[in-house]
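Hey, quick one: can you model this chain's 3D structure?
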Amino acid sequence: MREYLLVLFCTAAVTYLLTGPVRKFAIAAGAMPPVRARDVHREPTPRLGGIAMFGGLCAGILVASQLDNLSKVFSQGTDIRALLSGAGIMFLLGVLDDKWGVDALVKLGGQMIAAGVMVWQGVTVITLPVPGVGPVAVSPTQGMVISVTLVVVMVNAVNFIDGLDGLAGGMVCIAAMAFFLYSYRLWYGYTISDAAPAVLFSVLLIGMCLGFLAHNMHPARIFMGDSGSMMLGLMLAVAAISITGRVDPDLINNETGSQTATVHALVPIYIPLLLPLTVIALPLADLLLAVVRRTWAGQSPFAADKRHLHHRLLQVGHSHSRAVLIMYFWAALIAFGSVAFSVTNTGRTVVLTLAGLCLVGMVVLLTPRFRPRAPRAVQSFVPPRYRQQQTGPMAELSAKDKQLLGEAGRDSGMGSTATGHHHKATGRR
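Sure thing. Here's the predicted structure for all 429 residues.
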């Protein structure tokens, strides 16, 4: 675990330190498209944040290759090489789109090429683990189709939710945390070495997201752009493919000693690829709804609009930060709920807990304008929006307005004083 923490810290630190220079480079390169009708931000913001994230990824892989335990992942397979190849292609495609814009069909073709390169290097679904039946082998063609489809779906799902400050990075970070817990349990709990690459990929994802979120939270100083969002989606897909298509339920059966316990342990992947889809359930649902909505209206599925889930939260009345936190809440509830159901033996307790949390989430959704006020004793430690408001005619004015009003009053006083002196001087003449 210490080696994973070291990799996470190095990845996050390099991403964080590179984001500032990358922001200056994006401004100098003109990667600041004008504000569009569907955008939420009000001022042009530089993109190309994926450059810093790709630098953090390379730094994390370099550190991992020098550690005793994690270096075995590099020697036992080609997953790392395949990840760098696919992420590099996706990164370059995203940079071109952030700077000059790329047609949607060309972008889709590039995504399929990146996925195909990884499949060619061995990152593909070989079997579908079905408890009670065993590993169901798939043909190379079927494995390629499943793998490419999963990559394209995840890449576009993450890209679709990149509409609010900190939304895509935070939700991918939550998904990576949930996936880390699941894959780490398979590796160390059941000694399945095939789960080791997924654990490392999850740690790298968490570090990249945390390092970039420090610059991307509202109000964002830089956007990750397609160069970042598509790369995050690809890495999440690679982690899913590397663990879902290679875990043999019989190995877990040997550890648990019973078929019932094995079925329970593999609940998240009882239906093939269930867990990888649950960790991005919210952006995936947004993707499917957008495709259906645009196709029904006779538009292209890739046509941009302002009717995503996060846009609807803003239209209901939630603030920018609150809409992002609500999306975080539901993403964490679904992802960690799936993992918790596979870990604990008290499924009923988990279901009741999730039901209670769902109720809390629904209440928050239906009260967009409610803002709790902190007690006076702690008001200096909380954001201004949670402090008790003043009473009287000045309560509705902001601090900036009050400052301008005060300056105007002083100027008026100076003007009247100068006028008085002028009249006195005129009288003496």
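One thing worth noting: Confidence is low (pLDDT under 50) at residues 267-273, 390-397, 415-429.
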